Write a sequence for this structure.
């Protein structure tokens, strides 16, 4: 995700197509949480007049994140690449966790989850995927953050050696896709706790999303044939269908809305990557709005859900129309996301990158690891 912030694709020109795709995914996240998950978590809010019940946006953001990891990993030193991701992801995440903690602690109505200090610590350390029963989410949107951090770290380590390039890397991609698929029957068969901790902690059941994004990059650079690309992406969509499927006495119940949404999303991402920019079909005022929203999208993603549910509760108590409640939750998320971006994400990133560059400039040249120059993955 590199905080969902794609780099420019040519000569410093920002591509509106990527801003639109990324911003659209965040809008899907907002709609899913505001109209569907809100009532799942808090049934007392009552039914919504409009419901978007498909978990699509966050998963597609991981696909985009993997694509841009492949785009940028060969630019500059690996150390700076990795630190840039940490500097972008962690500060706003930590700030959002603290803000959400205090909001839930002191503003939650009776009967709602009121976190303790231990919950704050567990969320700051991102322990939910490892032990969700002991460390409940303060905000369910945050499940993507540790997966991104692990993925960026793993990508940097791979890129230093031969397994990050050429045929070996392709074998690794297929392995990362097929091994989790092969263990799916065990995952649904009630495995021991140690197995669940490892699989969920490392996000095995989400690896297909990173594979899908890197495959788009390889295909657009003609380092993967169209036949292999299509086959791989079909298997990625299959893995996603199984991830969200429920096993019932009648058989496997697939959530087709989300599955088809992921398939369509990967197709759109592929078009954005392979085709020309979409600036010619969008008016300038729309481009400005899309670019602005895309620029704050990571902050919106981080802080909209749990606090937004509080907004729904207050407006529901006032008898506000459900559509107005939904609009208010989205507007609150955008406002808070803008503040998080302006006050934390951007200044923290600048500060941390200046610190890294200052540290790197003081190192002796012989101490600086030589970046791999054999080309990007594939």
């Amino acid at each position: 995700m590199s905080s969902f912030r794609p780099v420019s694709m040519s000569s410093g020109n920002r591509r509106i197509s990527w801003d639109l795709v990324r911003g659209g995914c965040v809008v899907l996240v907002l709609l899913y949480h505001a109209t569907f998950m809100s009532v799942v978590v808090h049934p007392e809010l009552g039914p919504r007049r409009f419901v978007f019940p498909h978990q699509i946006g966050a998963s597609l953001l991981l696909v985009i994140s993997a694509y841009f990891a492949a785009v940028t990993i060969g630019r500059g030193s690996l150390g700076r690449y990795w630190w840039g991701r940490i500097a972008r992801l962690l500060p706003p995440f930590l700030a959002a966790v603290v803000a959400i903690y205090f909001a839930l602690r002191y503003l939650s109505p009776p009967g709602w989850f009121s976190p303790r200090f231990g919950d704050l610590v567990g969320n700051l350390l991102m322990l939910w995927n490892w032990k969700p029963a002991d460390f409940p989410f303060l905000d369910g949107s945050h499940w993507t953050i540790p997966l991104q951090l692990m993925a960026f770290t793993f990508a940097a380590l791979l890129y230093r050696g031969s397994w990050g390039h050429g045929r070996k890397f392709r074998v690794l991609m297929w392995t990362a896709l097929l091994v989790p698929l092969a263990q799916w029957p065990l995952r649904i068969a009630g495995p021991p706790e140690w197995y669940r901790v490892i699989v969920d902690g490392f996000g095995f059941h989400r690896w297909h999303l990173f594979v899908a994004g890197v495959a788009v990059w390889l295909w657009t650079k003609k380092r993967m044939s169209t036949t292999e690309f299509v086959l791989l992406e079909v298997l990625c969509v299959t893995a996603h269908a199984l991830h969200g499927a429920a096993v019932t006495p009648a058989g496997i119940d697939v959530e087709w809305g989300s599955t088809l949404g992921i398939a369509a999303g990967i197709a759109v991402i592929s078009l954005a990557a392979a085709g020309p920019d979409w600036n010619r079909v969008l008016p300038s005022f729309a481009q400005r709005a899309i670019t602005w929203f895309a620029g704050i999208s990571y902050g919106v993603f981080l802080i909209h859900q749990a606090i937004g549910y509080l907004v729904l509760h207050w407006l529901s108590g006032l008898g506000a129309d459900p559509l107005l409640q939904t609009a208010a939750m989205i507007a609150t998320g955008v406002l808070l996301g803008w503040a998080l971006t302006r006050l934390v994400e951007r200044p923290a990133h600048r500060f941390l990158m200046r610190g890294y560059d200052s540290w790197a400039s003081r190192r002796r040249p012989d101490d600086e690891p030589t970046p791999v120059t054999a080309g990007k993955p594939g």
